[in-house]
Every structure is written in C-alpha cells, then in structure tokens.
Amino acid sequence: MGDLFSYLNEEQAQAVISNKKYLQITAGPGTGKTTTIAAKMLFLLSDKGVSTDDILAISFSRAAKYQLIKKIDDLSDILGYGGKPPILTFHSLAYRTIKFGIHYEESRYRSGFNIIHTEEFLNFSQDLIKGLCPQYTDRDLVNSALSNAYNLIRQGNKLEEQPLNDWKCIPKDRTYHINMFQHGRILITSNDLVAFWKRISVIEKIKNVTDYQGLITEATRLLKLKSHTLHKITSTFQHLFVDEYQDTSLAQEAFLYSLLQPHHSLTVVGDKNQTIYTFNGSNSKNMDRFINHFSAYDPNNFDFVNLVKNYRSTKNIIQLANHFIEDSSIKPGNPLNGLAPHVVETHSIELAAKFIAKKVKDLIENEGVSPGDICILYRKNSEYSPQKTCVLEQLSLHENLPVSSLSKKINSESLLSRILKIKDIYEDEPLDEVISLLNDKDDGIVDFIKEAMEQGAYDTDDLTDYIVEVQENYQVEEEDSSITIKTVHDAKGLEFPIVFVLYLGDREFPHSSQPDIEEEKRLLYVALTRAKDQLYVIGKRGYEFESFLDKCLHSNVIHERFHSEVNEEHSSGVSEDDKLLIDQTTKELEILEKEKQEELEKLMELF
Ligand SMILES: Nc1ncnc2c1ncn2[C@@H]1O[C@H](COP(=O)(O)OP(=O)(O)OP(=O)(O)O)[C@@H](O)[C@H]1O
Which Gene Ontology terms cover its molecular function (predicted)? Predict the structure, then answer.
C-alpha cells in the first residue's frame, strides 16, 4: 500500500486506515471522497485479507456507481493490484432483498414481479384517479401530482416527518401542497391520497408489480421481520459503504439501518452542501443523524473524518463556488490560481448558446483543446430544456464539432418495455442464448443485454435486476472524445478541464418553479465545482429572484458581454466575429491575467 499512502493526504489516509466500525467521511467537492472510499476498499482487500465479496458498496445512482468503479480501477493501476467489490444502487439492493423474500415466501410479491414508475399504475386502470382532485381538469397532471405525493410521503420527507408505510398512517384532514414545476402547486387532500394509495395496493397485488419506492418499503419490511430474508442478505458481506449519503431519503436510511447487523462495519461518505435531490426525497440531515446515532450507540467504535482540500479546481474557481455556500470549508489543494472564471452576460439563452458554440469552436480549432475536455452544463427543466436545444442547434451549425451521444437520451420507455417483453418471452434462459435467438437486434437491445452480462447478469431473471439499476436513468455511455452536454444533476461526481454553465437568470437558474433557493445555490455549487481549469458562467443580470450572475461578479472573474439582438438584426455584412463584443477593459484584464499566470507557472517550475 506504500504507493497509495504517498498519494493520499493525511485526512484521506486517516479515513482509509480507520478501523472503527462506524465511519462518516464528510468531503466537499473535489476533495477526494470517491478516491478515499476506493482506497479504503483496496486497503481492506490488500492489507486486511478481506475478499471482494465481503464488501458491499451502495451508490445513490448508476452514474455514481461508475465513478466509483473507475476510481477503483485507476487506483488499482497505481498499485498494480485490485479487485472489483460489488457495487449496487439502493434500488437494486432492495430488489435483491425482495427476490430472497419471494424465495422464502416472506414477500407480498410473487416470482416474476415487475417494477414500474408510479405514474404508470394509471395504465392498468383509468379508475385509479377517478373522482380524485376534481377541481383540476388536467387528469394527467392529477396523476403526476398524486404519484408525487405518494412517493414523498413514503420517503418521509417534506409532507410528513417520518416515512409512512401504510395508507392507514396518513393523518386525517390534511392538505398537501405538491410543487408541479411549471404547473405550480397542486393541492391534494389526505382523503385523495388515501384513495389513491388503496387503489394502487389493489393493482400491485393483482398485477404483481410495484414502483421504485415500493421496492425500498417492501425490502425494509422484509428485513424487519428478522427471518430468512434478513439472514440471507446480511450474511453475504461484512463491510458496507454508502456513497453520496447526503442524498439518501429517510426511507433509505431506515432500509440501511434495518440491513446493518452487529458484525458489519459501515462507512458513509457525503457532503451536505451537495444535496440536490430534496425535491425527490433526499434528506441531508441523515448525515447529522448518523453522527448522533452512532457516536451515542457505540462511541468507541465511531470515527469522523473531514476532507477539505480540493484537488480538482483552481483557486479562482473554488473562490467563486464558495460564494454560493455559506459554510463551505473547501480549500485549494492546488497552489495555482489558474485563469479567472469568465462571467458572460447575454440577453437570451439563444445568444448564450451562440457564445458557447463560438468559444468551443475556438478552443478546439485554435487552442488545441480536446472536445472530450469540454462539458456544457444546464439547469434541468422538468420536461423541456431550451438551454440544451439551443446549444445543440448552435453546435450543429459548426461542422466537425463532435457532441457526445450522451446528450441524446435513449428513448428509455420504449427500449425498456421491449426488454421487459423479451424477459417474459425467454424466461430463465441464459442471456447469450437470448441474444442468439433475437430477431430484432437494433435499438440498443443487444448492447443493453451485453452490458448487463458484463455486470454479472446470467439469465433473464438477472436482467430484471440490472433493469432496476438503470431504468430511471438509462443513457448511452459517454465517448471520451466528444463534447459533453449534461444537466447539473447528471454531472454530479464528474470533472472536466473546461466547463460552461448556463443559464443564470430568466427564471432558468434559479429555476422559477423551484421555491427552495438554497437548493438552487447548492446546485450551482455542484455545477461550478465540476470545472478543473476553465469556467464560463453565462446568463443575465438583475432578475426578480436572487441574481446568481450578479453574485458571481463579486468574485475574481473576467466579466464579458456577448451582444446582442441588435447586431443580429443588422447582421447583413456583419461577420460572425464582430458579434462577439467583449468589453475592452475586461479583454485587457484577461490578457494580463494570462501573462501573470504563465509567469507564475514558470516560477513554480523552478521550485
Ligand atoms: N491526495 C490527492 N492528491 C492529488 N490529487 C487528488 C488527491 N485526492 C484526490 N485527488 C484528485 O482530485 C480530484 C477529485 O477527486 P474525487 O473525484 O475523488 O473527489 P470527490 O470528493 O469524489 O468529488 P465530488 O464530491 O465533487 O464528486 C480527482 O481528479 C482526484 O484524482
């Protein structure tokens, strides 16, 4: 492990060698949280004689899982040895638990059960929402709002303090306000919610289906029975790791605590400042509760490590990001200031997209930047994203700009429903057989099955397991050589040398439908801290909510203006280059800054 410890800093090494059963690692962005848990796993494998199957890592999403796998591989390369401990998402672990529950006839589901999105229960019976929320004529909206409320109340956030596992627990005479983004708030009475829940329970029973939250609820119930299922699932591992702990819900916390046995160790890693899923049930207080619970439960076996040195970004980028988080403790681990971030004012999203396309072209063609080093981040809009559409349009106007296929999400609904059909037709067949029997080899189905096989799936039953992991967020794998366009949520845990963030203002970022301004700030914090060397923040100043662009100007940034519709309207004879009117003084500042930076870098080389 010598090489590894010469790479890790003191706090990271402390977390790796800590032999306490219950460990919380709190780590700001870029401080090596993923690096540290990957190193701790390799340490257990190499120095403690632990086998890969003794370890179980739970990640919050599939994207986070791949980050961890990549980090384990990278560190294994440094060390010259490695291992591949199992990494599951919460949902796939819950699914496995239920599979054991079915085997031991302890589950309320039967063999061959399926998982659907909550809104899809309506496909089984239109009566599901009949007579509910009669004041709203848009019935799809009613279905979405009720599905949302049903999920939130079982997750235990926002609507009620504790996760509710049964409709009988819903308090009478309550009215819940459900934020439906561009549709505003929808009012749902407890009577409506009870009726919806009861009807879903009937469908679940008859059709042998559940939804994602249903997986967690049922798995927790099975573990609490303390019988065969609990024994079977908890005897397979010793060391449990949970990544992105700040994004777990109260229901996931309950699932985890039911899973944990006295012979297990548990390491959780997270950062409250990167909580960006509260709309979806995340509860960052789980981080504090972990400390309170385990430091009281077994004080001699509890440890806490805080990582604060950010190795990813330059000082200037960290300084800008820290403006958005009051108690951010991240400090630069890198001595160089780097280039000042660019704050670019435009009048519209379309102009922002033009600016990005022009800059990206310049970076690639004139500055030799590799397209794979560039990432464009936008604030997700629930259904439609003008930012992404505009950027894609503008990039497509320039030839030879490779855009990652990741930007085009696979039509997951159709792909996955076809895979589910295949599963039903070829029940229990080995997957290599299934591939050879398939007539229809397009639309990524074969690729999907092969990917599942690479992850250890053997037959169609395992395929469902894999579907559970990916169904919520199936995307084509990234190509390293292309420009990446992602939502901030999807970019969590990733890093890129050059990052563009749009669009700060115009009710896009902070998003007008999102009442939680602190969550919007955390989202921007996550976006800004994805950048390693160069950062471009694009938007509009002066806005009725808090203006994020104005706030950026309080940091050490280069302030540019990309004008304007006027130029566009008189564009005959105006060259594309003339449209980029950078404020002269800031342009000079940029050159000065570059020269200073080069000088500093030369000096640093001397030491
Ligand atoms: N001790 C170290 N010395 C030098 N570089 C390091 C060290 N630890 C981590 N790094 C580098 O810092 C970057 C960030 O590390 P990592 O991705 O593990 O951070 P993270 O805390 O998981 O980030 P985030 O929370 O933003 O996802 C990576 O490029 C990693 O290789």
Answer: helicase activity; hydrolase activity
